[in-house]
Amino acid sequence: MSSSPSRPTVVLGVTGSIAAYKALDLVSRLRRKDIAVIAVMTRSARELVGPASFESLSGNPVAVDLFPRSKPQQIEHIALADAADALAIVPATANIIGKAACGIADDLLSTVIMAATAPVVCAPAMNVNMWNSAAVQLNVKILAARGWTMVGPAEGRLACGTDGRGRLAPVEEIEAAILKALGWSDDLAGVPVLVTAGRTEEPVDPVRFLSNRSSGRMGYALARAAALRGAKVTLVTGPADVPAPAVGTTVRVRTAEQMLAAVTQHLPHHRALIMAAAVADYRPKNAAARKIKKSGTATALELAENPDILKYASVHKKAGTVLVGFALETDDLVANATKKMKAKGLDLVVANGASALGSDDNDAILIRKGGKPLRCGRQSKRDLARTVLDEVVKLVARPR
């Protein structure tokens, strides 16, 4: 897999329907938008269309084996699942739909489906009687209930010579569903957006530090989502538990003071600041130059207050710069987040509870300047990032 992490990646599952050749057009359409495509072909699909065609159009090797000898060090289905910003199954036979619905994983594509956490777009294509069968209809309902996006099938003349529903949906409709799943758009095209992410670590001595449980997932999801919408993203990140997305510019810092310096440098050149980093409120006043040894008695640690980066940004920003903050609260979520918005002159605050730390999902409330709070409900951080950016788009569009 040679796709660049700086652009979205679609893992395309191709199964044994006569419509498999139409997936080649889909690959071409996605590549014209600079979307990386990695094809995973079942054995039946390879009987209908040669892998070389997909390799030529995608620029990536086609994945066919669960245990490829060429990659003994890699768990192929996990690597593919992790690479996917969206998983598309085009065309999808009754067989793969049934496997996915029942949790069967007995080949490369079905194991990728089992391991993937990315949104799934499924475009069925089969004989009309197969499509109308009780088993297929039940399986489709099961997958739709799990969040899969079903596109088609369409009605028309089928390869078997009959007429009815079962044709692969038009490729442009499938493409539109994939782009929606990716969060791909151009509503932030060319807009410079500064995102902070991760946590800060404040040294106590050379081997210890004060920090928090932030994983960096939320900030990274925001940076990635902004880039997918065309923004020129600068990511200022402290330590995190997951790899940083490859966006326009990445600046790595460790402490709150280093993050303040980076924000100070980059803020004047950006239209919006999304401050998702979990910055330590305090730091040791005097970090020890050597490891502090046990002495048998209690040791006091004197703390100093860290700079308030958002407040600094509010005072020093250019007119019209959009400021987005995060409020992690254990009680009175809306009241405390609203107070933070007013105190720091923010345009938007994402309020969440402590359960969001280290988690893959969130149950946030958006506190909007001049608007009612928006309760987002429990959703993935990927989806929350899109919701936040929907609000940022509105704020950026305001006259300066």
Number of strands: 19
C-alpha geometry? elongated
Work out the helix count. Answer: 14
Kindly state the percentage of residues in helix. Answer: 25-40%
- Determine and state the CATH class of the largest domain: Alpha Beta
| CATH architecture label of the largest domain | 3-Layer(aba) Sandwich
Average predicted confidence as pLDDT: 88
**Helical/strand content category:** alpha/beta
3D structure, described in words:
- The protein has 400 residues and is α/β, with parallel strands linked by helices.
- The protein folds into two domains: 9-182, Flavin prenyltransferase-like (Rossmann fold); 192-396, CoaB-like (Rossmann fold, 3-Layer(aba) Sandwich).
- It has helices at residues 23-32, 43-48, 51-58, 76-83, 94-102, 108-115, 128-132, 134-145, 171-182, 217-228, 256-266, 309-316, 333-344, 381-396; strands at residues 9-14, 36-41, 86-92, 120-124, 149-150, 154-157, 163-167, 192-197, 202-205, 208-210, 232-237, 249-252, 272-275, 282-284, 303-305, 322-328, 348-352, 361-368, 374-380.
- The protein starts with 8 loop residues before the first strand and ends with a helix.
Short note summarizing the structure:
The chain has 2 domains: 9-182, Flavin prenyltransferase-like (Rossmann fold, 3-Layer(aba) Sandwich); 192-396, Rossmann fold. The protein is built from 14 helices and 19 strands. The protein has helices spanning 23-32, 43-48, 51-58, 76-83, 94-102, 108-115, 128-132, 134-145, 171-182, 217-228, 256-266, 309-316, 333-344, 381-396, and strands spanning 9-14, 36-41, 86-92, 120-124, 149-150, 154-157, 163-167, 192-197, 202-205, 208-210, 232-237, 249-252, 272-275, 282-284, 303-305, 322-328, 348-352, 361-368, 374-380.
